[in-house]
Specification:
The chain has 19 helices and no strands. It has helices at 4-8, 12-30, 38-54, 60-79, 86-102, 108-118, 125-140, 145-161, 165-181, 189-202, 206-220, 229-245, 249-257, 267-288, 291-305, 312-328, 332-348, 352-368, 372-415.
Length: 445
């Protein structure tokens, strides 16, 4: 917070001018086309804090632009693991709510910004409760069908994250009806398909999920308008993951590289997206047998995640990908050591789905090593984590999803009579083949 006495002593007119000037500078920075750096977000929070704390009158249109962009950037930073001054941000948002309401501005985006910052604490009961409460307040602040769809989709994703699939399905059905019946909600169909795709993906219905992600791209249009950038980027990301599981590696690489087509709102989003782009490229190339290229991308992914303040879950996923690379190279003991670290990181960060996946992978690795007691221990740990993850009410649907996932992979292996030569699956970026330890591609935007 800027010091009033330090700037102008007791002269209120000078102080008001100073606060408005700093507010204008912060507005320019957060509304710039490039991704907002941590310092810009911090300055924006301080500028809003001074306006609210000292009752400085700001033009309504400028305030609307400022709060809208601050909410968008805060959501981006929160979702992608930037925990900077979390309590200060939430405190300032809480105190700015009456100001927004007094100027006739919607307040639900501010509640959504709070929910996004709490989303990274869902391994704690207080984090889950705080996110749920923020989304409830956002829903209560909705003024029409479009607002309801916006908040409903975020609330549905919250239920998906907690494996509360029936609640998510019910909310998505309501959002779908609104998108079909109300023309003002039609442009949210891309986000609707993303949520449906996420739901079907975690339930194991991969082909249905892929259909929704491709439908999201169709709904977004070409060229993709700015409000649909987030949905389109996620559609390419998840389409690439599913295509890789289905054995369509070259298509998967093409989809993943499209992630770089869309601008980021915050610095943390840019770093996390870069990390996951290289991670997914590494996974696909490992599966296809292009191991040197895979190594180059995984190394770049680790560098990108290392620049994030909070990247525990991402690091665990990366460790699992590195373990798979070790297994493809026949270094199973190295793979087990890395997987043990991935499991420990997942438990520490409350990434329950990761515990299931990584313990299962460890069980398969130990089985190949003919370590039956070790395989049984890992399989038992994976089963226990799976039951805790899904809860009793979700076990039947989760069991069906697990079977669908395994059967899909087995069918692909049986049908692949003549595997393609390794050389046919190459990373389109080409840079990662120059030298393994050089930074691979990431399209500059």
């Amino acid at each position: 917070m800027t010091s009033r006495r330090g700037y102008c002593g007791e002269r209120p007119e000078v102080w008001s001018t100073t606060v408005l000037r700093l507010f204008g500078i912060a507005l320019e920075r957060v509304t710039a086309d490039s991704d907002v750096a941590d310092e810009g977000l911090r300055e924006a929070v301080n500028a809003l804090d001074n306006v609210v704390r000292y009752g400085i009158e700001v033009d309504g249109l400028l305030l609307a632009r400022f709060l809208t962009r601050l909410a968008q950037v805060s959501v981006s930073a929160g979702e992608h693991g930037d925990r900077f001054d979390e309590l200060d941000l939430i405190s300032v948002i809480d105190r700015s709510l009456p100001l927004a309401a007094a100027n006739g501005l919607p307040t639900w985006p501010l509640h959504v910004a709070k929910a996004s910052y709490h989303s990274r604490q869902e391994h704690l009961e207080e984090g889950r409760a705080a996110r749920r409460e923020a989304l409830r307040e956002a829903r209560n602040a909705c003024a029409g069908n479009r607002d309801e769809v916006e908040v409903g989709l975020m609330l549905a994703q919250h239920h998906i994250d907690l494996c509360q699939y029936r609640e998510a399905d019910r909310l998505l059905a309501r959002c779908r009806r609104l998108c079909e019946d109300d023309p003002s909600c039609a442009d949210r169909r891309a986000e609707l398909h993303i949520c449906y795709g996420n739901l079907r993906y975690v339930q194991g219905a991969l082909r249905t999920a892929l259909h929704h992600f491709q439908s999201a791209l169709d709904a977004a249009g070409d060229p993709v308008p700015a409000p649909a950038h987030r949905a389109a980027m996620r559609a390419h990301h998840y389409s690439g993951k599913i295509l890789a599981v289905l054995g369509r590696h070259q298509e998967a690489l093409g989809q993943l590289l499209r992630m770089g087509d869309y601008p980021c709102l915050s610095e943390s989003e840019r770093m996390r997206r870069a990390g996951f782009l290289h991670l997914r490229l590494g996974e696909v190339l490992t599966s296809a047998g292009s191991l040197d290229e895979a190594y180059a991308h995984l190394a770049e992914s680790r560098r990108a995640f290392g620049r994030l303040r909070e990247s525990g879950t991402a690091q665990a996923i990366l460790d699992a990908a590195v373990a798979t690379l070790h297994m493809r190279r026949g270094r199973r003991q190295d793979a087990l050591a890395v997987l043990a670290g991935a499991v420990a990181t997942s438990r520490r960060n409350g990434y329950r789905r990761g515990v299931v996946l990584f313990e299962s992978k460890a069980a398969l690795c130990r089985l190949r090593e003919r370590d039956l007691p070790g395989a049984l221990r890992s399989a038992s740990a994976a089963l226990a984590a799976w039951i805790r993850l899904n809860g009793v009410a979700n076990l039947p649907r989760a069991a069906v999803g697990a079977v669908e996932y395994v059967v899909s992979a087995l069918i692909h292996r049986v049908r692949r009579r003549a595997p393609r030569p390794v050389a046919e699956v190459r990373c389109p970026c080409e840079d990662c083949r120059a030298r393994r330890d050089e930074s691979p591609c990431l399209r500059a935007k």
